[in-house]
Amino acid sequence: MFLALGRLCTRGSRAKFLKTIYASKILGLSTSAKMSSKLKNAKRIEGLDKNVWIEFTKLAADPSVVNLGQGLPDISPPNYVKEELSKVAAIDSLNQYTRGFGHPSLVKALSCLYEKFYQNRINPDKEILVTVGAYGSLFNAIQGLIDEGDEVIVIVPFYDCYEPMVRMAGATPVFIPLRAKPVDGKKWSSSDWTLDPEELASKFNSKTKAIILNTPHNPLGKVFTNSELQVIADLCIKYDALCISDEVYEWLVYTGNKHLKIATFPGMWERTVTIGSAGKTFSVTGWKLGWSIGPKHLIKHLQTVQQNTIYTCATPLQGSMYDHSVNNQNTGKKIGRQVLHSWIQPKTVDPPLVESAEAESMGLEHPWILVSVRILEPVL
């Protein structure tokens, strides 16, 4: 029957019409133009189909267009990072699946690095999760910790994925703006954008599950101060709320400013998931390699999400991030010092991302946000 109808297709529109009718009857298909409800999207992604970076990428595909919208590095990745990736790719075992929650050597290196700042031991197997970029860390944290009916405080302006990820989890984003109060005769700086403590406090209530913090901040370039972080910490503790702290620009801070981790504040380690990234630090955004750090009672829920979604991250990329840090070391005794040195060095990039005078004139506190600030200038 199908063969005969296929031959009839070349004999005009009547044959095509017959083919459509007969095939529909044989297969039990409806000829109605109305789409079946079973073919529609899940409610959890309703209204989330638009993405600013998809649009930017399309517009920037024109070779005559300069993309000032995305956080693309202005400098090439360090040679030692690229060389290590080449070396690792030649090792057969490092081209196979690795531990789902992070390559063993990498999570150990990360624990050695970060415990220098937290002043406590970090269990590499239970308190660190390597993810597909910081994006993956955010997704795991929100899916693993945020429930339907919860409220999540989002500081405005914010990185675009915060809101849709919160909504996808069935929660409600509650927005709180950074407000600028420039003083006459004073140079305008990103530090002039602040949260009003009373306004922030009014956003917290019994439904507040978490606040998403981003410091150093994208797109303003603001580095939150000790006092500003303390206000947030006090409210989190008062309302028993979590803090998802996006710190992907932690190593990129200009002299005179200091990045502080809210997880190091009293009472905050047990309620904070801190997110980091190799992409911004080493100019390898295409590697999509990030991590989450926090107490095991929180990280275990992020691990559950990961093991049931992407399962693991690329082994060679993880291997190269670790191996270059301990190059030429015969033992693991000096691993902490070596990793710390390698990861801090990129913040003093050469050549600089922007000239110091230009950065100061724009009031930036950290360099990576320059293109984002430029594109937002007309609407600030």
From TrEMBL:
SUPFAM superfamilies registered for this protein in UniProt: PLP-dependent transferases
EC number: 2.6.1.63, 2.6.1.7, 4.4.1.13
Catalytic reaction(s) noted: L-kynurenine + glyoxylate = kynurenate + glycine + H2O; an S-substituted L-cysteine + H2O = a thiol + pyruvate + NH4(+); L-kynurenine + 2-oxoglutarate = kynurenate + L-glutamate + H2O; 3-hydroxy-L-kynurenine + glyoxylate = xanthurenate + glycine + H2O
CDD domains reported for this sequence: AAT_like (cd00609)
Keyword Transferase: yes
Keyword presence, Lyase: yes
Pathway: Amino-acid degradation; L-kynurenine degradation; kynurenate from L-kynurenine: step 1/2
Molecular-function GO terms, alphabetical: cysteine-S-conjugate beta-lyase activity; kynurenine-glyoxylate transaminase activity; kynurenine-oxoglutarate transaminase activity; pyridoxal phosphate binding
GO cellular component: mitochondrion
Cofactor(s) essential for the protein: pyridoxal 5'-phosphate
Keywords for the protein's UniProt record, in alphabetical order: Aminotransferase, Lyase, Pyridoxal phosphate, Transferase
Swiss-Prot/TrEMBL GO biological process terms: kynurenine metabolic process
Domain of life: Eukaryota
Pfam assignment, any one: Aminotran_1_2
InterPro entries reported for this sequence: Aminotransferase_I/II_large (IPR004839), Kynurenine-oxoglutarate_AT (IPR051326), PyrdxlP-dep_Trfase (IPR015424), PyrdxlP-dep_Trfase_major (IPR015421), PyrdxlP-dep_Trfase_small (IPR015422)
Family according to the record: Belongs to the class-I pyridoxal-phosphate-dependent aminotransferase family.
Protein known as: Kynurenine--oxoglutarate transaminase 3
Encoding gene, per UniProt annotation: KYAT3
